[in-house]
Amino acid sequence: MPSSLHDFCLWVEKTNLSMFVKTNEWVVPTLQTIHILCVAIIMSSIVMITLRIVGLIGKDESVQAFAARFLPWIWYTIPALAIGGLLQISAEPERSLMNKIFQLKMVLLVAAMGGTIFLGRKISASAAAAAGDAVAPAVNQVQVRLIGVAVFVLWIAIIVAGRWIAYAVGL
Ligand code: HEM
What we know:
InterPro entries: DUF6644. The protein is mostly helical.
């Protein structure tokens, strides 16, 4: 049983899965391509929602309609990112798991996911209040915009961290 993160990495490196990913040259480029396509889906969705929240596009549709259309794409795509990312890690576990930038990326991911859930709830509450729901709490629109922009910045920070990992090997 591995007793530390380093031991765990050594253990992962010896698994059949790690051997498979390492010894088949097409696997890592395929996983990286899928990772980038998933990033594109997430960022397209978050850009559309953010632009609508700040009022730059789609003013003939409600913010809630935008969120209902684009938020699910984020939740569908994260499992694919996680599976593909973990498979990449299996090839060289120390490169990622022991890397401070990778660890930062995971913290940012949790924050971005939490922020996105919070944003979705604020948008729903705002729509309920606008529709005259007496029990719905009043929602400050400036607050929704600020949360939207903060969540967008968090997703961008994940991309920066993802790219940075390669230049921070050994950190
Ligand atoms: C869900 C868990 C995730 C895991 C386990 C994961 C894992 C990884 C790994 C292992 C790499 C390769 C790093 C390297 O060795 O250079 C990588 C790269 C990258 N990741 Fe993720 N990732 C995840 C989610 C995300 C998300 C949500 C985003 C952005 C929205 C993202 C954006 C990127 C980017 C931009 C790269 C650089 C790709 C390249 O340079 O080819 N990742 N990720």
